[in-house]
Specification:
The structure holds three protein chains of three kinds.
Chain A: H1 3-13, H2 15-29, H3 37-55, H4 58-82, H5 87-106, H6 131-136, H7 140-158, H8 160-170, H9 172-177, H10 182-208, H11 221-231, H12 236-259, H13 272-287, H14 289-295, H15 300-313
Helix pairs in contact in A: 1-12, 2-7, 2-10, 2-11, 2-12, 3-4, 3-5, 3-10, 3-11, 4-5, 4-10, 7-8, 8-10, 11-12, 11-13, 13-15
Chain B: E1 3-12, E2 15-25, E3 30-34, H1 41-48, E4 56-61, E5 64-65, H2 71-76, E6 79-82, H3 94-99, H4 110-123, H5 139-152, E7 157-161, H6 169-184, E8 188-193, H7 196-202, E9 205-210, E10 213-219, H8 224-232, E11 263-271, E12 276-284, E13 289-294, H9 300-307, E14 315-320, E15 323-324, H10 330-335, E16 338-341, H11 356-363, H12 373-386, H13 402-411, E17 419-423, H14 431-446, E18 450-454, H15 458-464, E19 467-472, E20 475-476, E21 480-481, H16 487-494
Parallel strand pairs in B: 3-8, 3-9, 6-7, 7-8, 13-18, 13-19, 16-17, 17-18
Antiparallel strand pairs in B: 1-2, 1-4, 4-5, 9-10, 11-12, 11-14, 14-15, 19-20, 19-21
Chain C: H1 2-9, H2 14-26, H3 29-54, H4 62-80, H5 86-113, H6 119-139, E1 164-167, E2 170-173, H7 174-192, H8 194-204, H9 206-211, H10 216-240, H11 256-267, H12 271-287, H13 291-295, H14 301-327
Antiparallel strand pairs in C: 1-2
Helix pairs in contact in C: 2-12, 3-7, 3-8, 3-10, 3-11, 3-12, 4-5, 4-6, 4-10, 5-6, 5-10, 7-8, 7-12, 8-10, 11-12, 11-14, 12-14
The chains are: A mainly alpha, B alpha/beta, C mainly alpha.
């Protein structure tokens, strides 16, 4: 099999997951978990499609989806930061609420044709062998996912506000002592992260899976995204790598499906979930003290090599993730 | 810059942390703020640095009232504070810590910041690697980083809250020299401490606080007796600590001591992701007290938890009362009469949200599947009375003060103990509570319980321990006889000399 | 109510919709009976969740545990259908359901206790796996003779239905009594037993409970097992209940587990409140089934109302603790 079309297909199908991973990474880096991702992706996908259809404009749809995402992020932030309620509780309720809202409000636009983003090959570069079809013969959202990944990485690691964002998630009391308005920062990134997740939803309904239906077929993806953020160690580049890996597995699943006609088709979409558990198990393994203790028994050379592998798997969340800042 | 605080008031519920505090410090001086734990020193300094908002009073800089009430405003007024627990970002690099929150533009110029960090650090003789992770630094280095950072921000008023609690003697000498140099450049340095000698060594003037009020002010040098009277409101009642037979005379050890060691570590190796310690040997006899000295995070906690059966060792054996318990579950250690009292009183030692009666029920042997509430309440009431805890069986442990929590932790220990492992038995407690705790511990000791405790208070280690083990830089000393050791020796060992 | 605003977007009359929901729930004795039948699985699942919530565990995997209970109960009924007396088959099926739920819950519990995989992700992954297991069984080994369709397995004979208590004009399904007994027993056990005390201690601080000598790993597994058993019974009720479809079909749990999480989030540890809220939620769910026919509204309106209810309670609770008590 020629790998180029497969890779091109994976890259084309990745923007929704990439945007969602980047958005959740931003929010969690600041200390806010937005657990509502699974419902939020559905709601923003539906909103994006319905708005684009009504306005006859794809960008308008994307903007509406981002607004919905930002609003959901603000709800989580308000409940946890201002009202000090449990982030998991709020996020979980919001998951179900968003999902039901999407089905309810989306019923009129289910199974109807609507606008979708058009391919935009870059002149000349698209004809570059191998690289062209993968990188330069895509739609605007794919290009945006490239730029977005680089931008989020740059923002987090190189800029002053990015440093503040990391500091707020790591040790809010210390950030406050440096004159940083911790809650304001968290509201900001809960909203910005939500907006990115919303863009991910729109990337589903306007590009990867055009249209709307109930069920829409992406149910469960939000949970996978949350797992990818953990697997990615809250690092945008590792997270995006995880996103590509997930989409690759999904794509391979459909290939596998055609090769194994006797297994019911409904089984294949669930394949990522055991893999998600496995991935999280690996992360836990990397963090496990027991493993590290066992390693001490090995000769130094082998120990060092194994430690390096384990460290690559290790994952440490922003220290204040999920906790609200207690002000005296 | 001249700093003046006028009539500062701050109440926490019924507690008057600051009740009309007035003081003034001149530019170019080091001003000591002296007082016991709980006298209101930290509260006052947190108000000056904007971390706390006062309920009343005024702050004047060079005679002009300045509204402070947030850390941002304090920094704009060139006031900065180095907190007792480092308020930095452990997982970020030194350079990132240096830059975070600084007005350095959207994309900070890292090269320039790195130079500034190096230059400033070198000026005061600090060695800071800009690329090291902050949590790999010693407490002293983290303090230095904070100081350098604040100086870079142009701070003219520098506050240090109990900066010497977790650093070695040589590091302290170093710090004092740097502080003197900073004051010589015209800054005001506030030095908060409860240690008389340090204030006398370093400061130009001192304000003594007692129970939230100014007890008095004095220029340094000043008669020690006078400072003591101001601090405690009376003469220091004792020297060293009275009322307790500190150690039995060497020639007649208690009968229990002759028996087999209750704790025996043979070539033990312990480790976690950050740290590993090897070749640990220790015998503790019944009725013996062993102190663990060293900077926080040098492995004392790891050793205590390994002895408690919470963390299995990497190598070697642990014997409790002669029985080999290496690798056995925590429950077996409990059954063997081992108890561990962690530093975190709430959330580690006590279960927040549960009452004292609940705690009593969890600790007692169960006779059926059902909890006997009445029995639990009776048991809790008995312990409350015996240990003089301010609370009832139905009090949520969160509502207890620090001293009462520590007493409750001791009260909840089983009646018979072979080995008691304790972290920082008296940290954060006032003198009376601390003494009460040690009275209880020494009672246990008299009954033949061996006690192993960690502390960062060198006096406590020397006064209470029979032998001391020093942890430093991944290494562990052989047990030292506490009767022959001095503060200076311990300080040097902790600082890494001679290990 | 916020629900009204949602309906306005769809230019539907809120008053009419709410009237329809109420009529759909209590409009006739028959409808009340259906609500009672929908109440039972919620009660059973909520009883289980009281256990895990006490220990501070987010057993989101309960949905899969309900499904596996239904699968195992179906298996037992199929095996014993033509052997022995029906009551024996029913009792065996009940036990099998409980065992299936326990097994599935223990998987999530073991992943958390030994593999350090957060129970939210472990549970969710297992939910999706349980879902596709059902699809596989319904289309594969347990397909109806001749036609494999997603509509479900061959319905069981009336002899294998759970009885209902006739209290004219309504009928009270047997499983409702089971559910009420479960809620009562669990709440008493949490208050009066060492098991309950240990779980409560773990819920407040896992570390402190462990240091005080509670065998936290064992108690965690027990909590999961007990919750799974009740969830499995809920699955059994969904298959064998007097007013169920008497068959296994995809989506058999239909979000009952998730809904029970909302119930317990609202009610806290209060058993009576749990029962009442579960009843109200069952009524809303059944009532909103009338909406698609009468108003062309999607039945997810019920889920929207439930979600909004819980969200507003979380917000109100936050306001209460944050702003009212601070004033005094």
């Amino acid at each position: 099999m020629d790998p180029v079309p497969l890779i091109a297909a994976v890259v084309a199908a990745s923007p929704p997951v990439i945007f969602a991973v980047l958005g959740e990474t931003l929010a969690e880096k600041s200390g806010v978990i937005n657990l509502s991702l699974d419902g939020l992706l559905l709601l923003s996908a539906m909103t994006g499609f319905a708005t684009a259809r009504a306005a006859g404009s794809v960008p308008a749809g994307a903007a509406a989806a981002m607004a919905v995402g930002a609003a959901a992020g603000l709800v989580v932030a308000f409940a946890s930061l201002t009202l000090r309620q449990h982030q998991v509780a709020t996020g979980f309720v919001l998951t179900l609420l968003c999902q039901n809202l999407a089905y309810l409000l989306g019923a009129p636009v289910a199974h109807v044709p609507g606008p979708q983003i058009s391919p935009a090959p870059v002149p000349l570069l698209a004809r570059w062998p191998a690289v062209g079809p993968v990188v330069f013969d895509q739609d605007a959202l794919v290009y945006l996912s490239f730029v977005g990944t680089a931008a989020v990485w740059w923002y987090l690691s190189k800029t002053a506000p990015g440093l503040v964002l990391r500091g707020v998630g790591e040790h809010p009391a210390a950030a406050a002592a440096r004159g940083i308005a911790v809650n304001k920062v968290r509201y900001l990134y809960a909203a910005a992260g939500g907006a990115l997740v919303g863009l991910g939803g729109a990337a589903f309904s306007l590009a990867v899976k055009p249209g709307w239906s109930r069920p829409y077929g992406i149910e469960g993806t939000g949970w996978i995204v949350l797992a990818i953020v953990i697997f990615g160690n809250w690092d945008p580049l590792r997270g995006v790598a995880g996103a590509y890996l997930f989409v690759l597995l999904q794509t391979l699943g459909t290939v596998l499906q055609s090769l194994m006609p006797r297994v019911p088709t409904q089984v294949f979409p669930t394949l990522p979930f055991p893999l998600m558990i496995l991935a999280l198990l690996l992360v836990a393994l990397g963090n496990s003290e027991r493993i590290h203790r066992a390693l001490h028994r090995l000769p130094p050379g082998a120990r060092r090599r194994l430690l390096r592998t384990l460290r690559a798997l290790q994952s440490s969340p922003p220290a204040s993730l999920g906790a609200s800042l207690e002000q005296e | 810059m001249r700093v003046e605080l006028r009539e500062i008031r701050k109440f926490f519920g019924a507690v008057r942390a600051n009740d009309g505090v007035t003081l003034a410090a001149e530019a170019g001086t080091i001003h000591g703020v002296l007082g016991e734990n709980g006298a209101g020193k930290s509260t006052l300094m947190k108000i000056l640095s904007g971390t706390l908002v006062p309920d009343g009073g005024q702050i004047l800089l060079d005679g002009a009232p300045v509204p402070i009430g947030s850390a941002a405003r304090a920094l704009r007024a060139h006031i900065g504070m180095v907190h007792q627990d480092p308020l930095d970002f452990p997982s970020l690099s030194v350079l990132d810590n240096f830059l975070l929150g600084a007005p350095a533009g959207f994309v900070p110029r890292r090269g320039r910041a790195r130079d500034a960090l190096r230059t400033l650090a070198a000026r005061f003789g600090f060695a800071l690697d800009p690329d090291a992770r902050c949590d790999h630094l010693t407490v002293a280095e983290r303090q230095q980083l904070e100081i350098v950072r604040l100086l870079w921000l142009g701070v003219q008023v520098l506050i240090l809250d109990e900066p010497t609690t977790a650093i070695s003697a040589s590091q302290r000498t170093h710090l004092f020299a740097a502080l003197r140099a900073m004051a010589a450049q015209g800054r005001v340095v506030f030095f908060v401490s409860h240690k008389l000698e340090e204030v006398q060594e370093l400061c130009d003037r001192v304000t003594v606080l007692r129970r939230g009020r100014v007890a008095g002010e004095a220029p340094i040098p000043c008669d020690t007796g006078r400072l003591v009277r101001l601090m405690f409101g009376r003469e220091l009642p004792r020297a060293p600590r009275p009322g307790i037979p500190l150690r039995p005379p060497a020639d007649q050890p208690p009968a229990a001591m002759k028996s087999t060691p209750v704790l025996e570590l043979a070539d033990l190796a312990v480790g976690d992701t950050l740290l590993s310690l090897e070749h640990l040997f220790l015998h503790a006899a019944a009725g013996e007290v062993v102190g663990l000295a060293g900077l926080e995070g040098s492995g004392q906690r790891l050793l205590l938890q390994t002895c408690a059966g919470l963390t299995p060792p990497i190598g070697g054996r642990i014997r409790i009362g002669g029985r080999d318990l290496t690798g056995r579950p925590y429950q077996r250690f409990l059954a063997a009469g081992v108890a561990y009292v962690p530093a975190g009183r709430l959330g580690e030692g006590l279960i927040p949200g549960l009452t004292l009666a609940d705690h009593a029920a969890i600790g007692e042997p169960r006779r059926s599947a059902f909890v006997d509430r009445r029995q639990a309440v009776r048991s809790a009431a008995r312990r409350i009375q015996e240990f003089n805890i301010r609370g009832t069986p139905d009090t949520d442990v969160r509502a207890l003060s620090g001293g009462n929590q520590q007493r409750a932790l001791l009260a909840l220990l089983p009646a018979r103990l072979t080995l008691l492992l304790m972290e920082h038995p008296t940290r954060g407690l006032d003198l009376e509570s601390a003494e009460e705790i040690w009275r209880r511990l020494l009672e246990r000791r008299a009954h033949g319980t061996a006690i192993v405790f960690s502390s960062s208070d060198l006096d406590e280690l020397l006064d209470r321990g029979d032998r001391i083990v020093v942890f430093s830089g991944g290494r562990v000393s052989v047990p030292i006889d506490a009767r022959r050791a001095t503060v200076e020796q311990l300080g040097e060992l902790i600082g890494g000399k001679g290990l | 109510m916020a629900g009204a605003a949602v309906l306005r977007i769809l230019s539907a009359s809120p008053a009419q919709a709410y009237a329809l929901i109420v009529a759909g729930a209590v409009g006739s004795p028959e409808r009340v009976t259906f609500v009672l039948a929908a109440w039972a699985p919620l009660l059973l699942a909520a009883a289980g969740l009281l256990v895990t919530f006490a220990a501070g565990l987010w057993n989101i995997g309960i949905e899969g545990q309900v499904i596996l209970g239904a699968v195992c109960a179906t298996g037992a009924l199929r095996a014993l259908e033509h052997l022995g007396p029906p009551w024996l088959a029913l009792i065996t099926a009940g036990l099998a359901g409980a065992a299936g739920g326990t097994f599935w819950a223990l998987l999530a519990g073991a992943l958390r206790a030994y593999g350090r995989v957060n129970e939210i992700f472990g549970g969710l992954g297992l939910n999706f796996i349980a879902g596709s297991l059902t699809v596989y069984l319904v289309l594969g080994p347990w397909a109806r003779p001749g036609i494999a369709s997603t509509s479900g397995t061959l319905p069981f004979d009336a002899a294998l239905w759970l009885p209902a208590l006739r209290i004219p004009p309504v009928a009270v399904p047997f499983e409702v009594l089971l559910g009420l007994a479960a809620i009562g027993a669990v709440s008493a056990a949490l208050r009066g037993t060492y098991f309950g005390l240990y779980l409560t201690a773990m819920g407040h601080s896992l570390r402190a409970a462990q240091l005080r000598g509670v065998a936290t790993t064992r108690e965690t597994l027990r909590a999961f097992a007990l919750c799974g058993a009740f969830a499995g019974l809920a699955g059994f009720a969904l298959v064998a209940g007097a007013y169920s479809r008497h068959q296994l079909f995809p989506l058999i749990s239909a979000g009952n587990g998730y809904l029970a999480i909302l119930v317990v989030l609202l009610a806290g540890r209060n058993a009576a409140a749990c029962a009442l809220i579960a009843a109200a939620f069952a009524a809303i769910s059944m009532g909103s089934l009338q909406l698609p026919l009468a108003m062309q509204l999607d039945s997810s309106m019920g889920g929207v109302i439930q979600g909004l209810l819980v969200l507003s309670v979380i917000v109100l609770r936050g306001f209460q603790t944050r702003f009212l008590r601070e004033g005094t």
